[in-house]
Amino acid sequence: MSATEGKLDVSRFMAGPRPEGTSDYLMQQTMIRVKDPEKSLEFYCDVLGFKLIMFREFPQWEFNVYFIAPVDSASTPKTAEDQWDYCMKLPGCIEVTWNYGSEKEEGKVYNTGNGDSTGTSDGKQIKGGFGHLGITVPDVYEACERFKEKDVEFTKTPNSGGMKGLAFVKDPDGYLIEILPQGPMIVKDIDCNGVRADGGEGYKDNSK
Amino acid sequence: MSATEGKLDVSRFMAGPRPEGTSDYLMQQTMIRVKDPEKSLEFYCDVLGFKLIMFREFPQWEFNVYFIAPVDSASTPKTAEDQWDYCMKLPGCIEVTWNYGSEKEEGKVYNTGNGDSTGTSDGKQIKGGFGHLGITVPDVYEACERFKEKDVEFTKTPNSGGMKGLAFVKDPDGYLIEILPQGPMIVKDIDCNGVRADGGEGYKDNSK
Predict the structure, then answer these.
(1) In terms of residue numbers, what domain contains A163?
(2) How far apart are CA A136 and CA A66, in angstroms?
(3) Same domain for A74 and A138?
(4) Among B22, B26, B27, which would you mutate to test the A interface (most chain A Cβ atoms within 10 Å of its Cβ)?
(5) pLDDT, position A199
(6) Which residues of A49-75 are buried (b: 16+ CB within 10 A; e: fewer)?
(7) What's the rounded Cα separation, in Å, for the pair B55 and B182?
(8) Of all residues in chain B, what percent carry a pLDDT higher than 90?
(9) Residue B155: other Cβ atoms inside 10 A
(10) Looking at the predicted structure, is the pLDDT value of residue B162 above 90?
(11) Residue A5: per-residue pLDDT
(12) Chain B contact set for A113 (CB, 8 A)
């Protein structure tokens, strides 16, 4: 590996079979804690097209979890037991965790990664490893028009910033959500904020 | 919503169609920054059965990204362009981001969420929102025997802690990975660390 040049030979990680015993392993979930689960479910379901697949309540430990995924609800089984089995085989779920009482706290509650300062003792930005969740859509510009109508907070509209054709929005807790196309990167002349394809600023590192 | 009781009526988020315009939206990625991409690729590919789907190098911005998912490499197209299109329609990828030079820093580099203190100015634990990634497997106990042979660091073997039958391991940066079954929770008498099903400690909140 040559760090100076930013090069790494990764060919062996692309080719060949998966190691013995791992062929059925599945990337099922990303868990995030949220301040107010109702606000989060509204955002992910009403704005981003997710459905609630199943949930579990743990009053003895004072938290609930809600598993959501952007899938058709017609496929979701009816019983809690069948929902669990279905969910555990569904790649790309988000596990939304609610610790009781967080919804009554003032302001933001959880550090969302990147350069966020929420949840620190000294109020200073951290060097956060978690970056964002990424949703792909048939048309990034159309999706962003829709988000704008729904008053979603943008940190980057498609034509602002250095990478044209992708966007970043924030969920109710401030987690970053990247919006990407389901195919080649396409750049349109004007985006939902009226930014032209030759406009906007340069590349911005979200961790800073 | 009644926070005192930890109850929330979520039925409307389960039922009904997805909002107009969102039916093709897809949860494609979770982005995490890593200190050393070679170590991370070794862990995710050799231990967790992921394959590298595609990568992009941005020397002008001094970072690379590697998209990985636990899928058969035979399905991965041959050209970078086709790999992009394939990847953007694949739910449950991890986008591994490498900022050049991090691999030369001392110790851990990035805050991994939960109650981690890495990457803070004062060295104190944060209230982290990001919790973990979750991999589902046909048999949690067998998977953990395999992980133990590969010297994976556990924070919870299947029979330790309050929830029997699931495990937590750490990736090279310290991100938590939950290991769950692809079906009903099954508890076996003895786990990879020799902990009995009636042993272990009680429930532990990872955020503390």
Answers:
(1) 133-181
(2) 22
(3) no
(4) B27
(5) 79
(6) bbbbbbbebeeebebbbbbbbbbeeee
(7) 29
(8) 90
(9) 18
(10) no
(11) 73
(12) 111, 113, 128-130
- B82 and B147 inside one domain: no
> Any alpha helices (H) in chain A, and if so which ranges?
11-14, 37-41, 80-88, 140-149
The CATH number assigned to the domain holding A76 equals 3.10.180.10
Q: Which residue, among A5, A14, A51, A137, would best test binding to B if mutated, counting the most B CBs under 10 Å from its CB?
A: A14
Q: Are residues A90 and A143 in the same domain?
A: no
Task: Confirm whether B122 is domain-assigned.
Answer: no
In this structure, the strands spanning A93-99 and A130-137 are unpaired
Looking at the domain assignment, is residue A59 inside a domain? yes
Query: What pLDDT is attached to residue A2?
Result: 47
Q: How far is B72 from chain A (nearest CA, A)?
A: 7
State mean pLDDT over B177-184: 97
Whether B186 has a pLDDT exceeding 60, the answer reads yes
Residues B88 and B44 placed together within one structural domain of the fold: yes
Are both A33 and A98 inside the same structural domain? yes
Cβ distance A23 to B72 less than 8 Å, yes or no, reads yes
- B40 and B99 assigned to the same domain: yes
Question: Beta-carbon neighbour count of residue A149 at 10 Å?
Answer: 9
Same domain for B100 and B34?
Answer: yes
* pLDDT for B3 beyond 70: no
Residue of chain B with shortest Cα separation from A43: B13
Cβ pair A14:B70 closer than 8 A: no
Segments of chain A with pLDDT less than 70 = 1-4, 200-205, 207-208
Q: What is the mean pLDDT of residues B160-182?
A: 96
Number of separate domains in chain A: 2
Q: Does residue A85 lie within any of the structural domains?
A: yes
A81 domain residue, yes or no: yes
In this prediction, residue A202 carries a pLDDT of 67
Q: Is the pLDDT of residue B171 over 60?
A: yes
Q: Give yes or no: residues A42 and A94 share one domain.
A: yes
Query: Could you say which of A26, A27, A46 has the minimum Cβ distance to residue B19?
Result: A46
B48 pLDDT higher than 50 = yes
Q: What is the DSSP string of A18-33?
A: PPTT-TT-EEEEEEEE
CB neighbour list of residue B90: distance below 8 Å, 6 or more residues apart: B28, B53, B69, B71
What tens digit of pLDDT does each residue of A10-57 get? 999 999 999 999 999 999 999 999 999 999 999 999 999 999 999 999
- Contact between A53 and A85 under an 8 Å Cβ cutoff? The reply is no
The reply to whether A178 belongs to the active site is yes
